[in-house]
Write a structure and sequence with these properties.
Blueprint: H1 24-35, E1 40-41, E2 46-47, H2 52-68, E3 71-74, E4 78-84, E5 87-92, E6 95-98, E7 105-111, E8 116-125, E9 131-142, H3 145-150, H4 155-172, H5 176-180, H6 184-202, E10 206-217, H7 223-292, H8 294-311, E11 316-318, H9 331-334, E12 341-343, E13 346-347, E14 350-351, H10 354-378
Parallel strand pairs: 11-12
Antiparallel strand pairs: 1-2, 3-6, 4-5, 4-7, 8-9, 9-10, 13-14
Helix pairs in contact: 4-6, 7-8, 8-10
Domain Band: 69-230
Main location: membrane
Family: Belongs to the band 7/mec-2 family. HflK subfamily.
Length: 379
């Protein structure tokens, strides 16, 4: 009969326990007894839990998964630090590797090729008892993975503290003007060397690539005064450079002018000496000729002198004896050439030809006398 049918055996809840709610504890006990292997079923004595073969299979699968969990891959930029029960064992490079799975061995991967950065701004006292604010930036990387993991608890923090110490030491040995102007590069180099020495002594496994001074300024209240001082220094250097440029342009020009004048003076000296030597030699030769024939030489010198003088001047020849008181001078022809111009006498408005004949006869006679004197001198 169904539990919900009417009648003496019907309308009865199967979960009803003496007409009350079901007992949860009893149900749990029955569930555990059925699936937990807590008792025997029937008279056959077979176990109520999982079969032994299934338990062994589960154990084998779990062991295989545990062994497979030991495989790991190290990237090209990384190094793997293998730990055995927390103690350093070895360092492996890039590629796939296997380790004894946890909890026997563990691996810590460290990026050794990546560039790390740290910046620091400090207010420090210089050698000349001035205060300067220095803003620095450091680029570094990991050089030894095992030292980076085991030697120092926090290598990055150690580098920050070492940077503060190094830059304070270098700035404390330098003057403020040196730091603010031309000494930034040198300060950065000295800081890098000192910082690397400190990191190597601590065996942090870090190597410094570069130290840069991004800014170096006096404190805020006195920046205006320092800016004026720097501007004055720059103006001084600019004026010095301009003066040097002017000197470099003027001095070579003056030296060239001096060389030119010296050369011209030497040439003038040589020319004058040569001319004087020539004149002296000519005079000596002329003296020898004069001693042998004084009259002839004297006449020749006179004629040559007159010829030289008269050949370079305009001449007008007048016939004094046959000329009349009224003379006609051809002014328009006198300035045009060096040839002698004979001016005839004017008699009653006419021109006489006697002047030209007399002038031609006088010039021919002078030429004849001059040629005869030269012949005598040559003999």
């Amino acid at each position: 009969m169904a539990w919900n049918e009417p009648g003496p055996g019907g309308n009865k809840d199967p979960w009803d326990n003496n007409g009350g709610p079901p007992d949860l504890d009893e149900l749990l006990k029955k569930f555990r007894g059925r699936f937990g292997g807590g008792g025997k079923r029937g008279s056959g004595g077979s176990s109520g839990g999982l079969p032994k073969g299934m338990i062994t299979m589960i154990a084998i699968i779990a062991g295989i998964l545990w062994l497979l969990s030991g495989f790991y891959i190290v990237q090209p930029a990384e190094r793997g630090v293998v730990l055995q029960f927390g103690q350093y064992l070895s360092t492996v490079g890039e590629g796939p590797h296997w380790r004894v799975p946890w909890p026997v061995q563990t691996v810590e991967k460290v990026n050794v090729d990546g560039i790390r950065n740290v910046s620091d701004t400090q207010m420090m006292l210089t050698k000349d008892e001035n205060i300067v604010v220095v803003d620095m930036a450091v680029q570094y990387r990991v050089s030894s993975a095992e030292d980076f993991v085991f030697r120092v608890r926090d290598p990055d923090m150690t580098l920050r503290h070492a940077l503060k110490s190094a830059v304070r030491e270098v700035v404390g040995k330098s003057t403020m003007d040196f730091i603010l102007t031309a000494g930034r590069e040198e300060v950065a180099q000295q800081t890098e060397l000192l910082l690397q020495e400190t990191l190597d002594s601590y065996r942090t496994g870090l190597v410094v690539n570069e130290v840069n001074i991004k800014d170096a300024q006096p404190p805020e209240p006195v920046q205006g005064a320092f800016a004026d001082a720097i501007k004055a220094r720059e103006d001084e250097q600019r004026l010095i450079n301009e003066a040097e440029a002017y000197a470099n342009s003027v001095v070579p020009q003056a030296r060239g002018e001096a060389v030119r004048r010296i050369t011209e003076a030497n040439a003038y000296q040589t020319r004058v000496v040569q001319e004087a030597s020539g004149e002296a030699s000519r005079f000596s030769q002329l003296l020898a000729e004069y001693e042998r024939a004084p009259e002839v030489t004297r006449q020749r010198l006179y004629l040559e002198t007159m010829d030289e003088v008269m050949s370079n001047t305009d001449k007008v020849l007048l016939d004094v004896e046959q000329s009349s008181p009224l003379l006609y001078l051809p002014v328009d022809k006198m300035g045009g050439g060096r040839a002698a111009t004979s001016v005839p006498s004017m008699e009653r408005g006419g021109l006489s030809s006697s002047g030209s004949s007399s002038s031609s006869s006088s010039s021919s006679s002078s030429r004849n006398s001059r040629s005869s004197s030269r012949e005598r001198a040559s003999r």
